[in-house]
Amino acid sequence: MTTLSINGFEMHCDVRGEGTPLLLLHGGLGIGEDWRLIFPADPPGWRLIVPDLRGHGRSTNPAGAFTFRQCALDVLALLDALGVSAVKAIGLSMGAKTLLHVATSQPDRIGAQVLVSATPYFPAAVRTAMAQFTDVALDALSVREREALAARHVHGDAQLRQLYAMTRGFATSYDDMAFTPPSLGRITGRTLIVHGDRDPLYPIDMAVELFQSIPASSLWVVPGAGHGPVFGAHAAPFAAAALAHLVG
Questions:
Q1: How many separate domains does the chain show?
Q2: Is pLDDT at 105 greater than 90 in this prediction?
Q3: Of 115, 112, 118, nearest to 46 (Cα)?
Q4: What φ, ψ does residue 15 adopt, rounded to 5°?
Q5: What is the predicted pLDDT for the residue at 1?
Q6: For residues 114 and 246, is the Cβ–Cβ distance under 8 A?
Q7: Closest CA to 35 of 190, 245, 242, 200
Q8: What CATH number has the domain bearing residue 54?
Q9: What is the domain range of residue 109?
C-alpha cells in the first residue's frame, strides 16, 4: 500500500501482483477494498492498481470539490507516477464514469475496459435522488450505518459530510457527465458494458446508448439485477467474464 501526493491531495493506492496492469475503480461512497468482494484472491498474471478515489477511504480531498473529469485527471496522474503508460481497467458506477473521461480524453491509455452500471449523463430521476444526500440525511443514519461509513472513510465526520455534499452536487451538475455519441466514439479500447435490467438509477436504455455509441463494445444485461450487479452471487461469473474480456 502506498500514498502519493497527486493533484493537491493524498491518494491512497494498493499496487500488488505482477503482469499486465489492471486498474480497478470503485463506486461512489466505496473504497478500493470493495474489489476484494469480487476478487477474493488476486487474479494471476495481473499487476493490480487499486486506488481510493479522491475524498474516499484513506484518500483526502482538501479542495472539497469533486468532478468525474477531475477524478479522471487524478487517475491519469496516478498512472504517470507509477510509470504505467496503458492499462486494462474495470470501473463500477463512479469508477465507470471516471473511465469514460479517461477513455475519451486519452484513448491510448485504456487498452480494454469493463464499465459496470455506467451512464453517459444523469437522468432526472437520479438527480432527485442525489439531492436527498443532505447533512440532515447523514445525521438521520442509525448508529450502525454511521459507524460502517466511518470505518470505510477514515478521516472523520468532515469527510462523511464532504462525500454527502459531493453526491448532492451531482444533482445540479450538467457539464461533467455529458457524453454524446461523437465523444463516446473516440473510445478505442474494447469495452464490455455490464448493466442490471432493474437498475433503479440508470435505466437499461442508458446502457444501450453507451453500447450504440462506443465503437468496439459489447453489452451484458444481467437479468433481474439492480445497480452494481457484480457482488454476492454475481461476483464469480462477473470476475470470470470481465477477465476473459480484458484478456481478449
A1: 1
A2: yes
A3: 112
A4: -120, 120
A5: 78
A6: yes
A7: 242
A8: 3.40.50.1820
A9: 2-122+174-247
CA–CA distance, 130 with 164 (Å, rounded to integer): 9
One-letter amino acid for residue 191 of the chain = T
Cα dihedral 29, 33, 39, 42 sign: positive
Residues 6+ apart with CB under 8 A from 180: 120, 213
Whether 35 is covered by a domain: the verdict is yes
Rounded mean pLDDT of 61-72? 97
Mean pLDDT in residue range 43-54: 98
Q: Name the burial class of residue 232, with classes exposed (0-12), middle (13-18) and buried (19+) by CB atoms within 10 angstroms of its CB.
A: exposed
Residues 125/205, Cβ–Cβ less than 8 Å: no
The answer to whether residues 107 and 189 touch, using CB atoms and an 8 Å cutoff, is yes
The residue type of 201 is L
Q: Give CA–CA dist 195/206, Å, rounded.
A: 9
How crowded is residue 202: how many other Cβ atoms within 10 Å of its Cβ? 23
Q: What is the pLDDT of residues 213-234, one digit of tens each?
A: 999 999 999 999 999 999 999 9
Read off the DSSP letter of residue 57. Answer: T
Cα torsion at 51, 52, 54, 59 (round to 10°)? -110
Residue with cell 461533467: 176
CA distance 248 to 137: 44
Query: What is the distance between the alpha carbons of residues 45 and 22, in angstroms, rounded to a whole number?
Result: 10
Under 8 Å CB-to-CB from 18, ≥6 apart: which residues? Answer: 45, 47
